[in-house]
């Protein structure tokens, strides 16, 4: 605190000035009679004015020094900032350029100061940037993040472009406005993100290929079981019938009847195994019929009541083979989950075509699913489905159903969108 603002100094100064004023008044009225008083007052006035001037000059010096110190402190803070700090005036000429800015833009401060900000912007953004800053000045908002919707780009002195993240703030009054941009070079982060995204895409492609290969293998085995084994069994049945014609021994006849029953069972098992592997119906009749069959078969085998609303076959015809298979497998997996995990009494299935996409919903009234269930390391059913639909450009959601159980929702564009992730 300045010595002048000390209470004792204020009281003493005021008292001194009061006394001097009084002495002056007395000197004016009695000056003719007391000439010595005139002399003393004159000297006191001169001394007072001199002291006043000295004190004022000292105060100005102290204030200037204080401003200098605070500017130096601010500069040191700005210079030690990890982020680049660039301040421009209303004409967008640079007035502050900290050390981080020197590094980011690869340009010494002396070269940047006083110059236009434009040299640090790629040419294609210059006009737009100028407009944006002026618009920001007019809004009166004091600060905001820049480039919310898109990546911002800067230009280093050596001509290299780089992605950045920035916030802008303004200060000063209209006409003498300053804009300060605090920015960060995000090249490394962007490279990391791009690499991660590429890796995710590769993994997704790999998992889709693995699923596809598995599906093909299953189809091949299903066909062989159905066609080859089916035909052989039919031939056996015909041979057995021919032999039975010739048999007269009641024991042998009984044996032949048992053999026929066994053969019928084998045919039924073969059909079931083949259908579980891959319902040839899916290839021959399409998704709607195959889904209908799956729901009926599930209801019969599990005893869970099923309410199914399935789109007519024509509505789903446009679906590609991959999409049909994925939706069919999603239905199969969710019904299996209902039977294995939910303890539900009833399940609702909705399969429809809407806005060029297939939508499947499977809802149950069972015990519901907890977020931790989805993270079980050994459970791959739902994770696999999520990847599969993301790969097809669709999406999968799983959560609480309105009726209390679990609801699974799946969406996939009819033709799929291979390799693209869902938004
Ligand atoms: N309909 C459902 N009701 C209750 N819990 C479910 C349901 N579907 C899945 N879950 C839970 O989510 C977990 C993960 O399911 P999933 O990925 O299909 O793997 P898995 O069936 O092999 O366990 C299951 O273990 C189960 O705890
Ligand atoms: Mg499962």
Description:
The chain has 423 residues and is an alpha+beta fold. The protein has twelve helices and eleven strands. The protein folds into four domains: 3-78; 81-185, PAS domain (Beta-Lactamase, 2-Layer Sandwich); 189-278; 284-423, 2-Layer Sandwich (Heat Shock Protein 90). It has helices at 7-30, 35-80, 99-105, 109-112, 126-139, 187-246, 250-277, 280-284, 287-302, 321-342, 371-374, 381-391, and strands at 84-89, 94-97, 143-145, 152-155, 161-171, 178-185, 305-310, 346-354, 357-364, 395-400, 406-413. Strands 1, 2, 3, 4, 5 and 6 form a six-stranded antiparallel beta sheet that branches. A five-stranded mixed beta sheet has the order 7-8-9-11-10, covered by helices on one side. Adenosine-5'-diphosphate (ADP) binds next to helix 10 and helix 12.
What's the helix and strand layout?
Blueprint: H1 7-30, H2 35-80, E1 84-89, E2 94-97, H3 99-105, H4 109-112, H5 126-139, E3 143-145, E4 152-155, E5 161-171, E6 178-185, H6 187-246, H7 250-277, H8 280-284, H9 287-302, E7 305-310, H10 321-342, E8 346-354, E9 357-364, H11 371-374, H12 381-391, E10 395-400, E11 406-413
Parallel strand pairs: 7-8
Antiparallel strand pairs: 1-2, 1-6, 3-5, 4-5, 5-6, 8-9, 9-11, 10-11
Helix pairs in contact: 1-2, 6-7, 6-12, 9-10, 10-12
